[in-house]
Amino acid sequence: MKNVRVGLLGLGNIGKGTYTILTQNADRISGMSNSKIEVKKILVSDINKPRDIEVSKEILTTDAYNILNDPEIDVIVELIGGIDKAYEYIKAALSSGKHVATANKAVIATHGLELMELAKKNKVLLLHEASVAGGIPIITAMLKPLCGNDFQEIIGIVNGTTNYILTQMSENNLEYEVALKQAQEKGFAEADPTSDVEGEDAAYKLTILMLIAFGVYVDPKTIPREGITKISKEDIEYASQFGYKLKLLAGAKNSSGRLKYYVYPTLVPESHPLASVNNEFNALFVKGDAVGELMFYGKGAGSMPTGSAVVGDIVSIAKCIGTDLLEITPSQPYPITEEELELTGESRSEYYINFLVKDQPGALGKIMTVLGTHGISIQSVMQRAKGDDSLPVVFILHETRRQALDDALAEIVKNSYVEKVTSILRVLS
Length: 429
Ligand code: HSE
Known about the structure:
The chain is an alpha/beta fold.
């Protein structure tokens, strides 16, 4: 049995999970990888900090290069997060012929292509199963058992923080701020939740998914996105009355060579499998031409679920070390496609529109007329009289171009009977 030595960069949440699994399930892991996997050194910020796992101080170091320059270490496991330092360390590891496993979506979404090239050049592996949806093995599934498919669509609930907040707003009738505070108290949301609630985290993950599913690199900064900070509990309640759940979706669809992609809070029909994914859970709904529809469900964050994916990558690497498997395991597994895909963020969609309208004769009819003159067809409408002078009027519109909708709304708001457009949300169709 061969010895495989690992250097862990980071002993935070995921680092602890990874170390615990490697220790706790050592026999099984050793059998699966035909290796004795030893964590030789761990990078920490403070050696003497009290820790809730048992780990010898002898193997802790505060100097990353003490690990990266250790010739005995075969595999670097990057779990420090962030972009700049992680990029520097991964580059140094690959350049010196070490394999890398990382959970870092930001670094893979930003520098993944360059790092994959570097891995290929140095004949080492760079694996990142944990970078999308934590414990759900979506990357390996698309690269291995599903690799014969032409992917048509992938839609994900890939951010547990926002899914927890939206579920709590829906089930317990909470305002956004209250649900966010609760998510922070339970440890699902970070103290600074900006990246999660503004959809940036989901955009990083979508970039990685599109690279694998469609063979295109889309800079995460260019993905059209909206977060969930402006969502009200009223919109969630109205959506529910129309038969929808509100979810933050990260989606990409190839329609005859046009790739549409987005991160948007979206109304999902209750009959769709993604509608029942609640709280901190993640899910990926995938359509392939051969396999048809598939749904992956599980925990997308947390120490042990994410550690589970990291350990899977370490075992995959360990299996290859000392064999010629590296030659047949592409370290650049998703070459950029030669097919010309037209990249388009915005396109047609069904919409949910909530107007605040003066309660006066003909007001509703006037809105409908303007929508009609712009070629926009109405699917359903609901008005909620509360005995006030103004009342919410909510429409579900058939599929329309965004420009047509914007033109119609600009005309509608000019009229004195409409106080404001309270919200515009997309509907999954
Ligand atoms: N912050 C992410 C989430 C987990 O809430 O799902 C790490 O990607």
